[in-house]
């Protein structure tokens, strides 16, 4: 009898979301090509007539955002641990840059906690590979595109142009989430108001968290 392990399963119901199949398969293809200790591992994909299943490593402690907001868990994540998490995430993002991938959705909600000293980057649903000779991924404006505005660099919002540098911006916002223990960036503002705040002439930035070293 083979070794038994617990896994996480992401399910796409094709009856309800038939137009999502291509994006789901793109996510599977991207994850299948990744091999790094700071990236959530894909075990496989199950194809059935009415649904697709993405089988990955299971993060026992859920997302980092959930952990930081959980009163009973918060004391398990002192600043020194958050610093270690920041390094782990940076290593994973460096690997993605080396593999010519842009994540496009880096946030505390997409960092998964495997132990009280171990996190990995997950959720590659918006991730895209850069074409040969290109340093950016550019998409088109359409009604179905939903950007996480509070985590997006200005060029990503204005031009829908995504690079490793725009991932660095998202990384900075993710650090802000971590060191505020799960606060919402630009809480209470709409997407348009966030853009007005960070764009010229206002050029506002999130304030440094009290816990940030």
Automatic annotation (TrEMBL):
Protein localization: Endomembrane system
InterPro entries: Kinase-like_dom_sf, Non-receptor_tyrosine_kinases, Prot_kinase_dom, Ser-Thr/Tyr_kinase_cat_dom, Tyr_kinase_AS, Tyr_kinase_cat_dom
The entry's keywords: ATP-binding, Kinase, Membrane, Nucleotide-binding, Transferase, Tyrosine-protein kinase
GO molecular function, one term: ATP binding
Domain Protein kinase: 1-213
SMART domains, alphabetized: TyrKc
Swiss-Prot/TrEMBL GO biological process terms: cell development; neuron differentiation; regulation of developmental process
Major place of residence: membrane
Name of the protein: Protein kinase domain-containing protein
Organism: Hymenolepis diminuta (Rat tapeworm)
């Amino acid at each position: 009898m083979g070794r038994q392990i617990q896994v996480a399963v992401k399910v796409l119901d094709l009856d309800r979301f038939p137009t999502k199949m291509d994006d789901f398969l793109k996510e599977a293809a991207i994850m299948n090509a990744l091999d790094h200790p700071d990236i959530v591992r894909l075990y496989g994909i199950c194809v059935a007539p009415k649904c697709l299943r993405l089988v990955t490593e299971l993060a026992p402690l859920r997302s980092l955002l959930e952990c930081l907001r959980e009163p009973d868990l918060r004391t398990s994540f002192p600043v020194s641990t958050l610093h270690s998490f920041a390094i782990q995430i940076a290593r994973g993002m460096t690997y993605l840059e080396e593999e010519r991938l842009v994540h496009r959705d880096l946030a505390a909600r997409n960092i998964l906690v495997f132990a009280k000293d171990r996190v990995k980057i997950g959720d590659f649903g918006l991730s895209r590979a850069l074409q040969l000779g290109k340093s950016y991924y550019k998409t088109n404006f359409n009604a179905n595109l939903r950007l996480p505005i509070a985590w997006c660099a200005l060029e990503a919002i204005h031009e829908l142009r995504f690079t490793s540098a725009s991932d660095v911006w998202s990384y900075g916002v993710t650090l802000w989430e971590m060191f505020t223990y799960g606060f919402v960036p630009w809480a209470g503002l709409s997407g348009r108001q966030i853009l007005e705040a960070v764009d010229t002439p206002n050029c506002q930035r999130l304030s440094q968290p009290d816990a940030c070293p």
